[in-house]
Amino acid sequence: MTLAADTTEGTPREPSAEAPLVRVVELWKAFPAPRSLRDVLRQPFGPPVPVVVDVSLDVHAGEFVGLLGPNGAGKTTLLKMLATLIVPDRGTATIAGHDVVSDAAKVRRVIAPVLASERSLYWRLSARENLELFAALLRLTKDETASRVDDALDVVGLRDTGRKMVGQFSAGMMQRLLVARALLGHPRVLLLDEPTRSLDPTAAHSFRSFLREELAARRRCAVLIATHRTEEAFELCDRVVVMNRGRVAAEGQASTLGETLMGSRYAVWTLEPNHAVLAELVTSGRARRVAARSEGDGRWWRVDLEIEGGDDAARDVLRSLVSSGVSVARFERVTAPLGELIERAIGRSARR
To answer: Domains in the chain, please, with CATH?
Structure first.
C-alpha cells in the first residue's frame, strides 16, 4: 500500500514525486500473550500474539495520514515502532531515509512523538521554563535555546503567558505547549496520538486549524495521527488508514474513503418516515435505509439513506419523494459516523 499527497484543506492532493519522509514496508510486531501464573508455571513461554501484521504505508512532506481503528488495533504500537520505542520483529521502517532499528539515533533527531498527556509537562514551571528544560535535554546552545523557544511560543500563541504556571493552563493551552515542545528540535515527522481528546469542540476545531496551517503548510512536516474523532479523520487528514487486529483493513483519501465503503449518505427531514415511496426506494435497491429518528418537536423525522450513483442518483431519489407527495423540509448530504465506517472497512476486509 503506497500512499501519496499534497493539498490545502478540503482539496485532494496530487501524487508527490518526492521520496516519502516515512516509509513502512511489511512491518510486523508480536508480544507474548497475557497468561495466568498457573499457565506460566506449566509452560514458561507461550506463543506470541501478533499486534502489527505486515503493515505498509508512505507519508510525504506536508501530509496528514490518519490511523483509525478500534482499541487494540495496533495503532499505538505502530507509532511506538516509528518513534524507536519498540523494535519491530521484521519488516522495515525508515524516517527521512534512516532505518528505525540500525539508525535509531538519527531517527530521533528528525521525529517527534506528541502524546496527549499533559502530565509530561512540569506544572509548577511556566511555558518558557518547560521549553528551556527540554532544550537542555536536546543539548541546544544558549543562543539556539533562546531563539527556538521564542519561535515555538510564537507559533502556538503562548508568547504572552509570562510566568503563569502550566498547571493554570486550559487543556487547549497545554496541547499547544506539547506541540511547541515537539517543534523545538525542528522535526520533519510528527506522531500525534489523539491530540484533541481532552478538548471541547470549539477548542478542538481551532487546534486542528493550527496543526494544518503550521505543521503541513508552513513547516511541511509529515504527520501520522491516531484518532477516534470523525472531525480529525475527515477534516484534518489527507488520507486515512483503517487498522484492525494489526492489519490494514482499508486505506484511501479521507474525502472519498467513506463513499467508497458506504456510498453517499443523505439525510431527509420529513413528516412521513414510513411513506410507501421510501420503502419502494429500498426494495428497488435505489437506496438503503440506515436509520430514522424523531427531530425537534416530534413531528419531523430524520431519515438517513445511503445512495450510490453520486449526485444524479440523489437528485432522482429527491424527485421521487417530492412527486409522490412526501413532505420534505430538508435533504442534504451528511458524513457517516466514524464508528460505522470502521465497522464497514473491517467487515469488507474480513470477507476478502
So the answer is: 22-259 (3.40.50.300), 263-351 (3.30.70.260)
